[in-house]
Amino acid sequence: MNHSTDHSGRLPAPFLRPGSSSFTDFVREYAPEVLPASRTLPAGGLPGGGPGAGEPPHATTIVALVFADGVVMAGDRRATAGPMIAQRDIQKVFQTDEHSCAGIAGTAGLAVEMIRLFQVELEHFEKLEGALMSFEGKANRLSTMIRGNLGMAMQGLAVVPLFAGYDLDAGRGRIVGYDITGGRSEEHDHHTVGSGSIFARGALKKLYRPGMSEAETVRVAIEALWDAADDDSATGGPDLLRKIWPVVGVVTADGYRRVPDAELEPVVEAVVEGRRGNPGGNPGITGGN
Fold first, then answer.
1. How many CB atoms lie within 10 A of CB 230?
2. Which of 171, 232, 167 is nearest to 197 (CA)?
3. Which residues are tagged catalytic?
């Protein structure tokens, strides 16, 4: 978007005109062609040929769990294009502001662009209003952005984020799920999205316990991703040879923190050790009981 100044060197009128606190609304008015949802596919849809038969990379699986002090979100690292592995270390969990994060499932490129635009949206609001947007406001803004992508979703380029964070007003962690139309639903305790979600959800139902500590919740998240990768080819498990671990974010009243690989490595090794001789489950984990 190279419309920032006119020939006199001054900012154009749209930059000086009062408006809403939404950065997306401003861009939609001033330069709508740069928004991801404004793109059009060529006649005939996606091009064929090449790895993955021309399919764009897709990202799965994301899990989110509420724990005693906040919420944990974790995502595997594999992106697929058709039957091919397009990327082994893609990031699917992103900090969106000081007290929230989002995970992406669906068309990877569009999903990443949407989350980055959402990050700017929240920062723009904070600068204009001088205050953080409420958790409800953030969840609704993301819903609006997903709804704006409906045309692309109907052409096969769907984006289905998972949103979570610490609600400062309620004093607890919260999770919000969406469908491709932008419809949102409050999810309690835990939720998953992506092609491996059905397997991850089964693991969470058995391992999750209310009131778990952060460490216990991170362990359960890794267990759920392991089960998803065990049955879903589009979900990648921890790569022990390349030392590629899931991306895990923790949000509490103190803010967002990405769990460093140095902390995740012993957790992954404990999961692997627990599955030896019993790959389909780990009766040794108690989930906080």
1. 15
2. 232
3. 60
Q: Are 120 and 23 in contact (CB under 8 A)?
A: yes
Summarize pLDDT for 103-116 with one digit per residue, the tens: 999 888 888 989 99
On whether the CB atoms of residues 119 and 97 are closer than 8 A, the answer is yes
Cα–Cα distance between 222 and 265 in angstroms, integer?
11
d(CA 22, CA 112): 19
The HSE-up count of residue 93 (CA atoms within 13 Å, CB side) is: 28
Read off the pTM. 0.81
pLDDT digits (tens, 9 = 90+) for 127-148: 888 888 999 999 999 999 898 8
Per-residue pLDDT tens for 247-261? 999 999 999 999 999
Distance CA 66, CA 211 (A): 8
pLDDT higher at 233 or 24: 233
- Taken as a whole, the chain contains a residue count of 289
CA 45/CA 133 separation, integer angstroms: 38
Residue 51 identity (one-letter amino acid): P
**How far apart (Å, rounded) are the C-alpha atoms in residues 45 and 253?**
45
Token pair in block for residue 162: 């998972």
Kindly state the DSSP code that residue 268 receives in the 8-state scheme: H
Cα–Cα distance measured from residue 187 to residue 70, given in angstroms and rounded to the nearest whole number: 14
Exposure b/e, 177-197, CB count within 10 A at least 16 = b: bbebebebeebeebbbbbbbb
Is residue 10 packed enough to be buried (19+ CB in 10 Å), middle (13-18) or exposed (0-12)?
exposed
Q: d(Cα 231, Cα 8) in Å, to the nearest integer?
A: 61
Order the strands of the 184-187 sheet from edge to edge. Answer: 93-97, 100-103, 162-167, 172-178, 184-187
